[in-house]
Specification:
heterodimer; A: 190 residues; mainly alpha; Arp2/3 complex 21 kDa subunit ARPC3; 9 helices; B: Rossmann fold; 6-stranded parallel β-sheet; 26 helices
Amino acid sequence: MWRWRVVDISTASCLGVACGIVFWAADFLPFSALQAILPGLGGFLNGLWLFAAPLCAVIIRKPGAALFCELLASVLEALMGNIYGGASVIIPGFFEGLGAEIVFAFFFYRVWNLWTACLASLLSGLFCWAESFLTDLQAISFSGPYGLAYLLFTLLSAFIAGLGSWYIYKAIARTGALDRFASGRAGRSV
Amino acid sequence: MTKEAAISFAGWGYRRPLRKDYVVKGLNLEICKGERVLLLGSSGIGKSTLLCAIAGVLGNNESYAAPASQREDEDGGVTEGDLLVEGLHPQDARGRCALMMQDPEAQMVLQRVGDNVAFGLENLGIERKEIWRRVRESLKRVGLGSVELSRSTSHLSGGQKQRVALAGAIAMRPSILLLDEPTANLDPKGAREVSRACHEVLKENPATVVLVEHRADDWLDILDRVVILGRGEDGLAKVAADGSPDEIFSDPSIDFDSLGIWIPSKFALAKLQRKRLEEQIRIKAESDRDPGSLAPGGPQSLVDRGSGKNLIAPSVKFAKKREFEKGEVVLEARNLSIGYNGKSIADGVSCAFESGKITILAGENGAGKSTLAMTVSGLMAPVGGEVRVSDDLASGLKGSPFSWTSRQLCKRIAYVFQNPEHQFVRNTVLEEVMVGFLETGSGKEEARYLAHSLLKRFDLDKYSQANPYTLSGGEKRRLTVASSLASSPEVLVLDEPTFGQDRSTWLEIVMLMRSVADSGVAVVAVTHDKELIEFLSDKVVTIGTEDDCSIKVKGPEERKEGRKPSALSPILSRLNPAIRFLCAFLLSIPLFLSLDPLSAGVALALEFVFMEGCGISLKQAFRHAWPILAMAPWTFLAVVIYGKKGSVTYFAWGMIHITNKSVYLAFATFLRVLAIAVPAVLLVLGIDSTDLADAASQILHLPERFVYGGLAGIRLFTVLSDDWLQIGQARRSRGLGDRKRAVRFFTQSFSLLILSIRRSTSLSTAMEARGFGSGQRRTCARQSRTSYRDWVALVICAAIPTSALILAFYCGTFALGGK
């Protein structure tokens, strides 16, 4: 049950690629400008880089799916080139994937619902927040008002991303595209 | 002497995930070694399922040894009974069987031609030298010896792709070759190429062959047995007929028509079959023309029958818009140039489309039929010349169809795409059809009522609440036609309407087209289907490179393709891709230790020297890294106003504190962002994903299954841009192209996501059919090499930040995390 089938790998890859395109497109949003205008407001966009891990995990339902998908998406984002500096987006990608993965692992990869998806996204968001203050935002105090505002916005955005990933999964499952997956068969019968 | 069995089914059955009924149940069939079998049977009898089962790619049943009579696999399918392939369980016999499927695109796993053929051999664990020897030999055998191994598969025609798939199959030296409608999706030329290649391959090959093909004409001389599958009254699969081709096709007691089988034309029965077909179509056409008839007729009868309610709303034009002059020219190309992105593929095209008639645009795949059809239907911009519309069709609009809005277009010209899934926009069948009524001004209730009656006409009302994606192939096609008709267009264009359909669905579509045309609509079909042309066309326009074509196009340019440059400079491109990624990390990660202008500035300066040494000039660096320069000032600003506070405050307002320290840190951050980001961009730009995957598995030793799975996913990306374009065009033709940009973007993205997931599941079948993921040790056809250069680069990339940090340490500016 925990071993990945070929179809798991190919579908996770495909989702990873699709998410990578979204990541890359989101790189064009004025994230940095928002950061400068209102403290932490940029955090509100973070969800666009966070939905991939829970989405892939709730569809594939295998250990490592969240991490694999988020990593593959950021590798693709790196290969396409981006304003955050090519390969350096892989580092946050890794941490965000790890955050989501930890939540699903905590539930032994057995609990798949709206709440675990949101929880995964929230932890992923927390990791994303912490990663920023270890790297690009070292010069700003993480415990000051800016840091807290950024945390708040990031978590809010992560929560929305979690909700979004669950409903995207539901919508995909309705089309019958996931019939070969336990996730796609849950609650459907023909 | 009894021959040894190659394949034997005993009481075998399979049920698909989420289905109540078995596709196949209780099948008993034996195929001997070396036999060449044609497998026939109507659509849905499970022929493809059988081939997949033999190839061992049906479900992923790891517990197949379980003695239970019914076994559920992880795909959710259920198998019963026994199937042995050369005495083994099919999954253990993988590698002995090679499967070739009908969709050429779905069988391309990797980007380059050579790598695709090599893929199966790698999975079998064949040695590298032997792999390339077999790759060349197999490509030669299928007539592709002159194609470069590095050619991208996206630059191949359908027939060429299919031959690459065949080469990949025979390179594995299988003892059983399974061919699942290998020519169904190809034009006559491509089909000839493929069947010729198969003949060539099978001439001296002793392999057992199982072929599924609706049209057996081209294959007769290599076949020695025909098996027709049917269903008994008890619902169990049974062999309805079994014998040599001559026996079977001359047996008048077999009901070929209802089995959906075309009789090969060399047999006498074929003539009778054709006559029956003509008769059926003629009767259909007559019943349509007879106004008094209530027999299921053309769409015009829909509204007549549904009357009682106020159906004569102004929007319901196709009830009877006006008296049609049959044969009136409604749409016309005059001296038109067609092509992509302003580059023409054909000039001086002139042809006319008439109401109430069926015009066929025929010609080879890729000749430009679809381009012409899309240009006249307002989905592609004409490169030059004119698309003329009659005053009736324009009804007040000016200009060519391309200049109309989406909503104006859908009331006049509808386009039905080759892949129905490109044009689905709603979650239920009913809503799908309602779109057309709603977009042309009907109210919600009215639209619902009209959509219901239209669905009834198309015999789809039982699915009205189903999701469109879950319908069968023929049903999807009918749905797309129904939903296109809902906006009551006067011109209906169908792209390859009979593509890959069996004979019964074929007949259904033909009848449908006849009805629509008889109701006064100008029907245009883009096709290369001989029978369709023979039975249906009122007029044929041929497009191609040959002289006898009515529209001549320039042939596609013969291209020679070498490898693309994989980096910004020749020196960089000689580095291993994995090492290039490592270099980017080595250059950047240590710099996070200290936040000070000195270490960042020195590192940045040294990096530029390093880049210069690698052959990247400052100018080039700037050209590729400028977006970082556009972003960095904002980060600078954020730190200036919100950064850690120092002793001297220059300005304070609310949360904003500009202090001596925040300015200092901002400066340091600015330099460090550049020092980290610039080389990370310059080093990885241009890396080829296949090379990266090879390096990731061979140098970094990441798990192969995931690396190559991921790589195959990345290849899908190139296919997706085409899909995106078509989905956009489909939405325009359905009247949804005028929506707000954001809405259009999200709905279109969702369709694309579904499509790509479907592609990825068929990709997994193609990969498994080539032995991927079987757990056997894999070899790699391409060697990912490292040389002294890579080690030198790594050392330099480690030395740059280290020396910058040491310098900062001795100068006293080193500051861990900006403290």
